[in-house]
Amino acid sequence: MQGALIPPHLARLLRHAARHRKGLVWGVVCVACANLISLAQPQVLRFAVDDLYRGVTAAKLGRYALMLFAIAVVAGLFKYAMRQSIIAISRQLEYDLRNELFAHLQKQPVEYFQRNRTGEIMSIATNDMSAVRMMLGPGLMYTVNTVTVGVVAIAFMVAISPRLTLYSLLPLPIVSLSVWWFGDRIHRRFEQVQARFAGLSALVQENLAGLRVVRAFTSERSEVERFDEINDDYQRRNVDLIQTAGVFQPSLAFFAGLGALLALWLGGREVVLGRITLGQFVAFTVYLGMLNWPMIALGWVINVFQRGSASFQRIVTILDTPPAISNEPGATTLTQVRGELEFRNLTFTYPGAARPALAGVSFRVAAGSTVALVGRTGSGKSTVLQLLPRVFDPPPGSVFLDGTDVRALDLDWLRSQLAVVPQEAFLFSASVSENIAYGVEGEDPAAIRRAAELAHLLRDVEGFSDGLETRVGERGITLSGGQKQRAAIARAVLRPVPILLLDDCLSSVDTHTEEAILGGLRGEMRRRTTLLVSHRVSTVREADLILVFEDGSIVERGRHEELLRLAGRYAALSRAQQLEEEIEAT
Amino acid sequence: MSTETSDELARSYDHQLMRRLATYLRPYRVQVVLAMIVTLAEAAAQLAFPYLTKEAIDLGIRHRDLYQLDRIAILFLVALLAAFGLGYLQAQIMQRVGQGIMRDLRTAIFRHLQRLPVAFYDRNPIGRLMTRVTSDVDVLNEMFTAGIDAVFSDLFMLIGIIVAMSQLNVELLLVTFSTLPLILLVTLVFRAKVRAVFREVRTRLARLNSFLNENLSGMSTVQMLGRQARNLAQFREVNAGHRDANLRANTYHAVFFPTLELVSAIALSLIVWYGGRQVMWTGITLGTLVAFIQYTQRFFRPISDLSEKYGILQQAMASSERIFALLDTPADPAAVTLDPAPEPFTPDTVSRGLSVEFDHVWFASQGEHWVLEDVSFRVDAGEKVALVGATGSGKTTLTSLLLRFYAPQRGVIRVDGRPIQEWEPEALRRRFGLVLQDVLLFSGTIESNLRLGDASIGRGRLEQATREVHADAFLARLPGGMEAKVRERGSTYSAGEKQLLSFARAMAREPELLILDEATSSVDTHTERLIQAALKRLMLGRTSLVIAHRLSTIQDVDRIVVLHHGRVREVGTHATLMAAKGLYHRLYQLQYMGGRPLQAAPSSS
């Protein structure tokens, strides 16, 4: 193989495969052996037929029969070994590559997953992986198969009659070509069908999502018409596909049959003219029959390689995208973290956004103190909480932990110093206790219980069938929004870290419960530096410092009483919430 | 014993499903019969090849008769062409039939979806319903095209081969058949093993997918909690499970295919050994022997194919079961009839507005939690009434009941004095104009979104409606005007533009009762002024039930109904309710002076 002929990304695939060099070589040897041995079968038939023609003993016939059987046994053993090596290795390669992909994805920041849809990444991790495996497994197997059968069978045929070989092989390349040609056409028409299918799905999706409008405006009939139209079009495209795909199988059979016809007709003449024996004729036709499948496989293999190569390219694209947020050269860790935070003239714009989310934000958080951030949705308070753990990277020299720029810190270490409770708690399909202990090594049941109690989750959970061991379903679907939030709080409480970030994490629980949870958390908050984002005045009242955000800037700052006296935005918010409580109470 | 009976039950159940599926075949019965005939003819052509080979050897080659050889070669070519043509024809007919049935099924499902109660959609996520129309139907397609047809084709082949072989030599046929139990045994064992292992492969793949999906969506949480290493280890485990299940499947394949070839080799050996002796002693011809070898090879393929088809059938049964369960879900009594198309709707010429009356209405969506408790109030013809209340007080539920999206458990809702159940659903809804808070635009054009399928609305009427709600200025700026494209969910239009469009949409129908859920999204001052003017025009001379958020709207209405926790708490005008300093007074303060910007309530209008 010449390096220049191989695209660089495939050369990389070969390096992957090289790890299984021994197994692959053994597999290829097995394919070759299995085929070579099978190719002896027509020779046995040839001698048997010639002997029959001349007269033969029963014992000799028995020997021929035994030989045919023995050939099948030995070839069968090699075929078994061939699948067990090549196909098994292709599965192993798929496994390795998928692990590599997953490990790489784990390094990508949040922004990456916002840019690339989960569905697309999933499709690469499954469909494209599968296409690559097809190329390395069955693709490789049938390539070797085609080459050995092709070379050896043709050699035997030429030995019988070169002229006859030439004539009868004429249709075979057409078979390969048509497999390749049709395979490509079919694939393209198939993609057309898929596009129509996507349109059909979109329509149904839209119709069901807009159900109430459709019903209220009595548009059902016209919706059915719209659906019928695209449904008919989808069907028409499918028929188009069938028209092409339907020629494929019969024409394969036709070309293969044409070869057989030529062998029968021309070969028959050769026998009549005495140029070859009847046994040679029979062997020849069997060889020709043996070539059919490899020729079909050849066209198929080309398509498998084309698709596998494109798929691998997509995988490589992911693997070669370096994480946008990673350790800077010389990243360090700190010993003895006090938990003092500083935001120094912080201005930040989200990637792709036109306006900055934060502009010139400065404040300090003394170790062990609690700072609350209030303001309307989109005012920038959550952004502050995202920049500290470098979910998005703040500009250098703007966010500091114990006087060190967070960008100079080791990423994993930095995050290991924080406990974050996000707005939307994400639970995994595991038990409640596993979810609470998700962020700590070694699960201590007593500590988990205490954390659940502190977050006021325990009483809810004890009502479940298996208590803390109850499984919560995908994304915690079996829990209410408030229960999920409390599970996330328990998760944070369990983490023995100096800094606590609470991002509006009690929005789904009622005021009364919130009060109770906060009461329990106060002890925790006193021991840790806490940044607290909230909409509710009752939540932030006790904070050491309250920052009011508007349009990415701090517009008011001070303690609760100071801000009330200021009679500004915070005071208005406070009054509105009082009213709300009164209305609720009536 | 019990498994046997449950198997039997399952079988009779499968038969029921099959019978029901067969009804979808009925419109295509001519094509199906034709396809069967063609399949039969194709099988015959396929079977001619070994026979012609025999004739070529016996008559042509061994008798050194070149004329015979040429003649047989021509016959061979004819058979080849016939097999090609018939094979193509058969595939075309069956696949088209399959596609036709799929279209019919999808249409039936979609039509039924248009008639299911709204409450059904509260229980069933859209994604799951989508699979009914898409993948479940596709699985059936595979059965109708690849499955049924191939089964017949394989059966014809098998029968044909047996007939042909028995014509040639019965003794040799019996010798060949002695390997049949072996084939059946191998196939049956393999089928059972493979079915189990493939079920595991599918489970492992599903687990891999859900693990991946969960980790990709929750990546941020994973990273914040520093779980990468442990999750990678978990992923390796899940990934290894998937690999190992596939390796087991591969082992079965690695054993099965060579074993099948071995059995076929045994048959070949037997033919050579036994047939060879017959050639010597009883004088069957060499051609017969060769033909036999070829028939034997053709015999094994359909047998292994048939077992594969069984798997397809199983899947199809599961899919059809789900589809029929959906089709059997009873339709909404308030559903509009889809066919035959009724005569075009003609609104009453004297539009005087409808009266609406809620008479002790109770409603609980699921279980016994009352969303509305004993709600009673009247809206007289031409009157404008605002519904006010905190989130969750039941305002939207009231309008949903009026539209007959749900039915109240107790109490009666009357429109023009008639209980709404007695109205023909279409006649009722056709008199309503609905404006929702979140304007939903469908992909298509501006015109199709205004018209929403109502062909009876003239172009002139549409244009007039857009002028009346002041949407004409923004429409004029769009390339193509009324023909301008609307993408999915109308993502290219601003919130204000969408609101104006939804006003025009309601206006074009000249409704007698307007149900309006005001949007809360903030828009620029200019658009806000347009919206307010449009609202006034829209409500002019119409009975209006408004979930109001704008001060100007509230001040304009004749009466305000204050809902709280599903009950009517206060009724009156803005002035009287403010003076009463009750619930309304506090809600008003909260909405217009508290957390919300005051600019939403303009000083003058």
Break the fold down into its secondary structure elements and pairings.
The complex is a heterodimer of chains A (586) and B (605).
Chain A: H1 8-18, H2 21-38, H3 40-54, H4 58-105, H5 110-115, H6 118-160, H7 162-169, H8 171-209, H9 211-216, H10 220-272, H11 278-319, E1 341-348, E2 358-365, E3 370-375, H12 381-387, E4 399-401, E5 404-405, H13 411-416, E6 418-421, H14 432-436, H15 445-454, H16 458-462, H17 481-494, E7 499-503, H18 511-527, E8 529-533, H19 537-540, E9 545-550, E10 553-558, H20 560-566, H21 569-585
Parallel strand pairs in A: 3-8, 3-9, 6-7, 7-8
Antiparallel strand pairs in A: 1-2, 1-4, 4-5, 9-10
Chain B: H1 2-25, H2 29-61, H3 66-115, H4 118-123, H5 126-168, H6 170-177, H7 180-217, H8 219-224, H9 228-281, H10 286-328, E1 356-364, E2 370-379, E3 384-388, H11 395-402, E4 410-415, E5 418-419, H12 425-430, E6 432-435, E7 444-445, H13 446-451, H14 459-468, H15 472-477, E8 485-486, H16 495-508, E9 513-517, H17 525-539, E10 543-547, H18 551-556, E11 559-564, E12 567-572, H19 574-580, H20 583-593
Parallel strand pairs in B: 3-10, 3-11, 6-9, 9-10
Antiparallel strand pairs in B: 1-2, 1-4, 4-5, 7-8, 11-12
Structure, explained:
The complex is a heterodimer of chains A (586) and B (605). A 6-stranded mixed beta sheet of chain A has the order 6-7-8-3-9-10, with helices on both faces. The radius of gyration of chain A is 36 Å and the shape is elongated. Chain A contains 21 helices and 10 strands. Chain A has 586 residues and is α/β, with parallel strands linked by helices. Chain A has helices at 8-18, 21-38, 40-54, 58-105, 110-115, 118-160, 162-169, 171-209, 211-216, 220-272, 278-319, 381-387, 411-416, 432-436, 445-454, 458-462, 481-494, 511-527, 537-540, 560-566, 569-585, and strands spanning 341-348, 358-365, 370-375, 399-401, 404-405, 418-421, 499-503, 529-533, 545-550, 553-558. Chain B has 605 residues and is of the alpha/beta class. Chain B is built from 20 helices and 12 strands. Classes of the chains: A alpha/beta (586), B alpha/beta (605). Chains A and B meet through α3, α4, α6, α8 and α9 of A and α2, α3, α5, α7 and α8 of B.
